[in-house]
Amino acid sequence: MNSDRLILKAEGIYKSYRMGATEVKVLKGVDLSVKQGEFVAIVGASGSGKSTLLHILGALDRPDKGTVSFEGRQLSRYSSSELNRFRNKMVGFVFQFYHLLDELNVLENVYLPAMASKSTIGWLRCRRWAKSRARQLLDQLGLGDRAKHKPYQLSGGERQRVAIGRALMNEPRILLADEPTGNLDSATGNGILNVLEKLNSTGQTIVMVTHDERIAERAERIVTLADGRIND
Amino acid sequence: MYKIILAIRYLIKRRITYFAVLAVALCVFIVVVVMTVLTGLVSDFKQKNHSFAGDCVVGTESLVGFAYYEDFMEVLAKEDFVEGISPVIKSYALITRKGSQQNYGVEIMGIDPVKHSQATGFGQTLHYHRDDVSSPLRQGRDVPNVFEPVKDPNYMGCVLGIDLALERDEQGRYTYGFSPADADIAIAVTCFPLTAKGALAKAGTSLVNTQTFYYSDTSQSGLARVDNSIVYLPFEQAQLLCGMAGPAESPMDSLRRANAIHIKFKPNVKLKTGCEKVALLWQRFKQEKSGETQANLLDTVTVQSWKSYRRAVIAPMEKEQTMMTAMFGLVGITTVFIIFVVFYMIISHKSKDIGTLKSIGVANINIVQLFLGFAFLVGLLGSAIGAVGGWRFLVHINQIEDWLFEHFGFQLWDREIYAIGDIPNHLDFKVLMVIISSAIVACMVGALIPTWQATKLNPVETLQVSQL
Fold first, then answer.
1. Which residues share a beta bridge with A43?
2. Cα–Cα distance between A104 and B460 in angstroms, integer?
3. Cβ contact, residue pair B360, A115, below 8 Å
4. Does residue A5 belong to any structural domain of this protein?
5. Which terminal residue of chain B, N or C, has fewer Cβ atoms less than 10 Å from its own Cβ?
6. Which residue of chain A has the CA closest to B3?
7. The CA-based dihedral angle spanning residues B397, B399, B402, B404, taken in that order and rounded to the nearest 10 degrees
8. CA B58 to CA B309: how far, in whole Å?
9. What is the gyration radius of the CA atoms in chain B, in angstroms?
10. The complex's ipTM?
11. Count of the separate structural domains present in chain A
């Protein structure tokens, strides 16, 4: 399903952290291009900087050096409000630990990104559409009967599917998944991978981070992050 | 919309917020009750002092008094802003009850009861001759007779400060075991008359003037120092006793004198404006009288508003109120601190939510609005609970005190000592609104620093596995 059109491009990304007195260089000139409709898996050992790279790609973090371009425009040139809009509309994050809001039920968690992007009046105008879309997503993810449940009433796999639903709510151009199966047993993890594969088959661009090469094999392309650099 | 929903859910679902709500409710409750009682007491005390003095007092502290007071009263009577004028004799005396060897030092006030009731609230302080302003039929009907003992109107009557005549029970009630109608209580009042130069008028003779009066009524002003020390006498008699009655008393003292003129302004006249007008009139009057024989006595005369005239007794009460307000300012600071701690804990627990919200594109300003909205709800709910609780408590405060007194002998104020009847419990809506607004603002101030810190959280750090 992938086209030749680049949707995301990272060039010469450097990132380091301070741990006490020492500076840990995590990324040392990472270059990565993601085409529209691609399913890319980034693999690497624990602490290799996979998640850091994913956060930089999704504008949750800034690189020390280098540029990230989304559809040809550098993220560093985005204003603060444009970055918020980018995170809300263009990318959807799926985290290893789901990060659902405990105070909201499943349906509310899914339509939260739609609600977050609207003013109160704007939300009142579009809430029917948003709720309908959220229900549709939950049905697709096999959680139609769990809409009113609270996150703590769900299994790990179900929670991750809710997180995927939330990430897809605003029809993002790219889905960024950080160890989406890392907290699940293999059968449940397999179910999540099936969901991701299915989404990719409909044209959804996905970048997934994992330390497990067997899981990475489910992706269309695997890139390995080692010593702070990408080995395609 | 998510901010409203999340703020409400945080309020309902987080047990720790119940402590914040409770802390706010308790603070509001305490402040509402104490401020209402204290404000009531101060306001009541001021009102009683106002009632006692009238609006404005032209007078002297000198016991000699000042002459030409009648001329100045004529000047005042022509002014359209003046409603009532009452000349007053003020001095000290010894009183001895007939048949008793004991005498007591008291203050005497010589008044014309009708004029004095027009200028002050004197008529409403009486027990038997009460000027009932609420009843047009009774208003002012009995006041002219206040110095006529019921036993025999030909006797000279006197009105005693209620604490000179009666004793209070433990609940502050006066027992009227006898009335002027069925008892002839004679009281000898002894004064030291003074000349216009301040010398003893009867030096070399008996020194004193003594006259017997019959108890005709009591006056309950509600001011302890007034009610336990003042005896009201007919103006002319007091003037005679004090040697201020002019030629009839002494050829040397050719003019009648008084110690003060109490003035009441018309209802639409502002106190400050009225007093300034009187002061101006007094200056002119003084200049006109500058060549007169007793003009020097006018130098000691001042024109004061009732607030200034009673400042010595009001000021300590106001000071107490200021101190209490300052103390409750500290209570407010404590509330802010409690809210700060609670919000610090809540936001620490909610860092993951903040990271999640930022990952879906929520701006920092919206994070601030979310938590300030949460603080607002805590403040609103806490204030509402505290205010309703305070109001209900105030409604029953006197019953509660009665119950405590009956069962445990506890009283907020010993009614045998303090001239306080019921505990003031009138809740001022404006004060309530100020307290509620302050509580909400305190909550928001308390939440401000943790909220500001929340916006500084790096979502990447809060969403890390190690942070969970």
1. A210, A224
2. 22
3. no
4. no
5. C
6. A116
7. -70
8. 9
9. 32
10. 0.90
11. 1
